[in-house]
Automatic annotation (TrEMBL):
GO terms for molecular function: oxidoreductase activity. This is SDR family oxidoreductase. Keywords: Oxidoreductase. It holds the Pfam family adh_short. NCBIfam families: PRK08219.1 (NF006073). The keyword Metal-binding does not apply. PROSITE patterns: ADH_SHORT. The keyword Oxidoreductase applies.
Amino acid sequence: MSEQTAQQSTPRTALVTGATRGIGRAIAQDLARDHVVLVGGRSAEDVERVRGELAGLGPGTRAFVADVSDDEQVAAAWTPLRDEFHGLNVLVHSAGIAPQSRVADAPREMWEQIFDVNVISVAQLTRLTLPELRAAHGDVVAINSGSGFTSNPSAALYSGTKFALRALTDALREEERENGVRVSSVHPGRVATDMQEQLHEYMGREYRPEEWIRPEQIAAAVRLVVDADRTSEVEVVSVRPSGMH
């Protein structure tokens, strides 16, 4: 078998963190059509539930069970997958948390936790998988937010991490060009997920999911990024609610 034929017969792989709910689940479902999806989540039960939902859609799934902020768990989850596939075509960072607090009320622990999950864990997982991403000339896609461009009252914690995530991806993009790894940042506006429902509850507002972006639309943006011809790179995508519900 020629090297080209072997490459064509090897299924593409995609690791999606936060794949058991909301945006991450929609992305996993979309990519599962033509990728082996490594379904990332903290709960083995939730990961297996999603794997069951994706069964039969494409070339298959694998479990990636780990708390992304625990380096030992992440390494333990990644090592057998690395040894099985020897390359990674797509890494989607969708795991994240969004606690709300005014600066005057936010203790150090809140800052440390959200930066650990939303920024440091992204950097560490990317660093861990870069050899395989380079081998496959893969794509790194960070699910950022409209809060990566602006901030509002009670949003300093979340927006702070998303500004930092934008800086991380901008730097990584330039660093990895010579290695053939593309880096993209997807910035959704408000999406109809349980996180959005919790945010509305915090703000004391009525939650109407039909007013917000469907998670499948963010999955479509990720698909645009990873399917782009290798002569191009979709660096930043911003998806906003249209208001035309």
